[in-house]
Amino acid sequence: RMPILEQCYNLLDFESVARRVMKKTAWAYYSSGADDEITMRENHSAYHKIWFRPRILEDVEHIDTSTTMLGTRVSMPFYVTATALGKLGNPEGEVVLTRGAHKHNVIQMIPTLASCSFDEIVDARQDDQVQWLQLYVNKNRDITKRIVEHAEKRGCKGLFITVDAPQLGRREKDMRSKFDDVGSNVQNSGKDNVDRSQGAARAISSFIDPSLSWKDIPWFKTITKMPIILKGVQRVEDVLRAVEVGVDGVVLSNHGGRQLDFARSGIEVLAEVMPVLRERGWENKLEVFVDGGVRRATDIIKALCLGAKGVGIGRPFLYAMSAYGLPGVDRAMQLLKDEMEMNMRLIGASTIDQLNPSMVDTRGLATH
Ligand code: FNR
C-alpha cells in the first residue's frame, strides 16, 4: 500500500513514493542524470564525507534558522531551485511550489522552461514573497533581453544565468522513455517541430546558445539592475573570474548531475573555493550558493559551515509535489525546518551566523 503523507519522515521518502506513483516518462525526466549518473549519486554521497565537530554548552534553547540571500530575509537557508516542466509531475505545475515557498517564507527560482507561463508563476505570488529567475540564454538576444526586462518589471529579485548547459546532457533514462506531452508553453524555444525521440530535455532546449561566453556577461549588467548570479560554476578559477567580471554570486552546481558526468559535487568544490576567497579577502564580494544532492538539514548545515550563503534543492520538492501536491511540498519543507532546528541545537549553534568551518571535519574530502 502507498504510504500516506504522514508516513513520509524525510525528503528521501518522497522520492520512493514518487517513483511508484508518477507517470513513467515524468519519473524518467525528473530522476535522470547524465550518462552513468556517477555525479548525480556523488552529489549526495559527498555530504557523507563530512563530519561534525559540535560545540557543547552553548545555550541552544532558542534556535533561529533565518538568514538573508541577496538581501532578502528568509526563514531557512535553502531555496527552491529551478526545475523545468513542473506539469509532468503535477497538473498545476510550478505554482504549487510557489505556494509552498510562500507558506515557509523561502525563495523560489522560476525556470525559463517552466510548464506554467512566467506570468502565471509570478501571479501566484502572495504578500511580499520573493522569486528569482533562472535564465537559459537564447541565441536570439532580443528574446533574452525581453525575458530579463519583463522579469525585473514583474519584481524578480535575482537573475541566475545557467552556465553549465551549452548542450543538454545525455540522460538516457529520459531518452528511452518516449515523451510526447511536454505540458509546456516553452515560450522561447523559437521552434515547435522539436525532436521528441531524444527525450523531454533535449526536445525543449534547442534554443540555448552554446556560444555564450565571459564576454557576454557585462551585457547583462546593462540590461538589468537585478543581482546577477552564475549558476553551474564548477572550479575555483571560474569563481575568481566571476568576481572579476563583477557578478553578485555563483551557484556551485553540476545541474543535479544532469550535465557533465564526473563533474565534482558542489559541496566539495565549495570546500576548495572558500579558503581561496578568504585568503584574498574576497569572501564578501559575492554570495556563494551550492546545490545538488541536498536531502537533509545536516547537508544544509555542512554547506553553511563551509561558507555557503544558502543551498538550492530541486528534485525533493518535485517528488513531494508529484506524489502529494501542495501538502507534500508543505510537509517536505516543514520536515527540513524541524531537522534544521534539532541539528543546529545538537551542533551548538543557535543562529545561522554562528555556523563556521571549525564545526565540520572535512578531512574525508579530496580537498580540505
Ligand atoms: C533541473 N535543473 C535545472 N537547472 C537549470 O538551470 N534550468 C533548468 O531548466 C533545470 N531543469 C531541471 C529539471 C529537473 C527535473 C531537475 C532535477 C533539475 C537543475 C537544478 O536547478 C539543480 O541544479 C539541481 O536539481 C540540484 O540537484 P537536486 O537538488 O535535484 O539533487
Automatic annotation (TrEMBL):
Domain (FMN hydroxy acid dehydrogenase) spans 3-365
Instruction: Report the locations given in the UniProt record.
Output: Mitochondrion intermembrane space; Peroxisome
Q: Which residues form the signal peptide?
A: none
Specify the superkingdom.
Answer: Eukaryota
Subunit and interaction comment: Homotetramer.
Which family does the entry's similarity section mention? Answer: In the N-terminal section; belongs to the cytochrome b5 family. Belongs to the peptidase C19 family.
Protein name, as recorded: L-lactate dehydrogenase (cytochrome)
Taxonomic path: Eukaryota, Viridiplantae, Streptophyta, Embryophyta, Tracheophyta
